Amino acid sequence: MGCSGADNNQLSADFNQSESFQVYGNCGMCKKTIEKSLAGVKGVGNVNWDKKTKQIKVDFDSLEINLAEIKSKIAAAGYDTKEVRAEESVYSSLPGCCQYDRPNDVK
Q: What does the pLDDT profile of the chain (107 residues) look like in tens digits?
């Protein structure tokens, strides 16, 4: 329990779905930017991108937001997933250390 007396585990009940998927990136700055792209987004809970595996885990409320919208928000920050490719101009504006080798199989 937190200081308020509320059980902090109840917060996760607001998010009825958890998904993991690949997001391309390179470094700690990528991690910050990828995770920040979903910060404050209605319906999105915990977000964690692993630099080593290039996998992101997102907890979300599927009644508020869907997986395609989540991937579009990540792409809007300049990062590709297998299903959504970031705009070239956004990708090009990333710092040099964050410009990963873009895969050809992204739509």
A: 344 444 444 445 578 999 999 999 999 999 999 999 999 999 999 999 999 999 999 999 999 999 999 999 999 999 999 999 999 999 999 999 999 999 887 66
Range of the domain at 63: 14-98
5 occurs within a structural domain? no
Q: What is the CATH number of the domain that holds 27?
A: 3.30.70.100
Query: In whole angstroms, what is the distance from residue 93 CA to residue 91 CA?
Result: 5
Number of domains in the chain: 1
Q: Are 77 and 36 in contact (CB under 8 A)?
A: yes
